[in-house]
Structures are given as C-alpha cells and as structure tokens.
Amino acid sequence: MNRNMGLVDRLLRAALAVVLLVLALGTPLLSSALLFWGTIVVALIFGVTALIGVCPLYRPFGIKTFGVR
Q: What is the pTM of this model?
C-alpha cells in the first residue's frame, strides 16, 4: 500500500492514541464496558494507522497528507 499520511498526521494520531489509552486504562472515567472497549479499539486503530502511514478512510475521499509541506 502507498502511504497517504504525512508526518504531522502520523504524530497527531500517535499522540491521540496514547491519550485515549491513558484515558481508558488510567482513569475511572470510562466505567461503562462499551466506552472502555470502544476507546481501546479507536486507540489501537489510530496507533496502527500512525505506524504504517496508511489511513483506509482517506482513499475513498482522495485525501493525501503524505508529501504535503
């Protein structure tokens, strides 16, 4: 797959993934199981897309932040 995410986009996603994981695992704010697991899943998706540099949802909309300065 070709990358479609730039460095800033990837860093923001990674930071958001960390914040969501801390929120889910380190605070009692998400007492509902659905909110807890939903937050974990979203954090994992953001983390994986940040690592590989590809966002599947960007493709149908023609968004590409890779190479944008």
A: 0.86
